[in-house]
Design brief:
single chain, mainly alpha, two-stranded antiparallel sheet, flat
Amino acid sequence: MWQTYQQVRTTDEAQTTELRNLLVERYLPLVKYNAERIWARLPDGVELDDLISAGVFGLMDAIDAFDLSRGVKFETYCVPRIRGAMLDELRTMDWVPRLVRSKASQFEQARKSLEIDLGRPPRPEELAAKLGVPLEQLDEVVGQATAVGLVSLNKKWYETDSYKDVREIDIIEDKKAEDPTHRLQNGDLMRLVTRGLNRNERLIIILYYYEDMTMKEIGATLDLSESRVSQMHSSIVARLQSQLGKRRPEFSN
């Protein structure tokens, strides 16, 4: 089907649309699976159907951009695009419950009122008294109030003379940024570990240890059963342990 689709998509619009719809139906379970995984970690108020709809658009973009000649399985190629479309949809949603917004509004009004009356920022006990809550619960109220403090990372921080303005995302420290040295070391380790493995064996190691995919997901990607992937993984690990054991003197020098 993929070969036919890529042959006709520049010449026959009607057939292209029909084949695209068939491909969407074929890979729709991937969309639903990833939507359910993301949705399970979200707060109440986000609809699963909204994530699935966004994922379908990501799937269609992946179908249009997929290049069969690269030799990559479509399942591996499309999942990041599907998840990316869902995450983009989440960024446009206002998922904060109305009750939380109401409490946040009350908190901000009380804080401003006290600041005007006192001529200074209110103390915790003053703020708690104004809100009519025990001092012990103030931290919880503050936490609920700050839950609505969402800021667009594309918001302009300040303008520059160049063509590109500085945005919020440009000034936020990325505490989880990857160390380039660590990335190079990981690459060297991956090449060392996967040397001598066949294609499926290399993919199992890469997808399991570097992409954090489950055995079931890897099986779906490689058209193998979950138990077969598990058996191959155990065999690969045993071989690698044997190989590394033989080369241990090289690393101890």
